[in-house]
Amino acid sequence: MKIKSQSGFTLIEVLIAVAIMSSLGLLAGQTIKQAIKQKKIIQEMVNDTSRLRDGVKIFEKDVQLAYHHRDWEKEIKEIAKKNKKAAASATPGGPAGAGVPGAAQLAQPQQLFDSNGNVIAEQETPAEAPRKDPTTQFIGKENEINFVTMNTGRIMKDMPQADFIEVGYALRDCTTFSEKKATKCLFRRVSPWVDEDVTKGGEEYLLIENITEFNLRYLGRGKQDWNRDWRTDSGGDGATKGNFPWLVEISITYQKEPEKEKSKKHSMQLVIPIHFPNNKEESGSSDSSGSTTGTPAATTPATTGGPAGAPAGGGVTN
């Protein structure tokens, strides 16, 4: 009688196969866990960078649309008065005091005519009321800035608001919203009322938390190098008084956990041009040779440590 042989795995072979499958499953699980952990870290870095970029973007738009008010109609009238005064002084027997800038304008009689051209009545035209131009100052310090900008809009229809507002940026002590930790935060102040003191008024809003560096520098006419302060009010010097800067440089650093030395830092450095400084010396003033001075084109340095081919104008460095 012939006995049939039975083929199959031995116990040792089964144990080896189970061990191999367990090892592969363990490695796969560790790989997936590590990938999820890295994804979380990368996502936090992206969120931190995006938060910093969004805040700087608001600052950039405010600076680009900085508003320097000048009453062109009033200036043209002043020029016309000066020309009229010069012509009157050159003409013998000219009326005394004619065309004197700032002289009171007397009411001029206005005649009313009928259909036949006959004068039927005379009435006095009231003199033009004196104007009071809005004051638009630019007060910039090393870590604080206040000015007037046109980066605004009406949230509600028929809202009583002008096309420009006061804004200010400053680094202050604060408490984080989620973890309730003491840190430094960048605040943005907004006021719809533009008055002589551009540094006060309005409400402050938290823009970015955990800011460890916020430095500003300014460059404009009459300055050969970057300056830490720029004042257009009576506190400014001869170069800055009444003149807005051409460029504003911002250096800002975000660190989520500043108390830890190895905590990741995200930094940005950006050179922002003011689109229309509207300074008096730059609005078509020319020298004897006929050359006209104007605001130079914005020059932005390349970002330190940025990849090749990155766009100029600043960026994020980790």
Task: Write structural notes for this entry.
About 13% of the residues have low confidence. A 6-stranded antiparallel sheet has the order 7-6-5-4-3-9, with helices on one face. The longest helix has 54 residues. A hairpin with a 5-residue loop joins strand 1 and strand 2. It has 318 residues and is of the alpha+beta class. The chain is elongated, with a radius of gyration of 34 Å. It has 2 helices and 12 strands, in the order H-H-E-E-E-E-E-E-E-E-E-E-E-E. 23% of the residues lie in helices and 25% in strands. The N and C termini lie far apart (82 Å). The protein has a domain of 202 residues.
How many H/I helical runs?
2
Q: Which percent bin holds the helix content?
A: 10-25%
Q: How would you classify the helix and strand content by structural class?
A: alpha+beta
Give me the count of strands.
Answer: 12
- The CA-CA distance between the termini, in Å, is 82 Å
Mean pLDDT: 80
Overall outline: elongated
The Cα radius of gyration reads 34 Å
The topology string of helices and strands comes to HHEEEEEEEEEEEE
Which stretches are poorly predicted, pLDDT < 50 over at least 5 residues? 94-106, 284-294, 298-313
Helices and strands, with pairings:
Blueprint: H1 11-64, H2 72-90, E1 108-113, E2 119-125, E3 138-140, E4 144-149, E5 165-175, E6 182-191, E7 203-208, E8 211-219, E9 230-231, E10 247-255, E11 265-273, E12 315-317
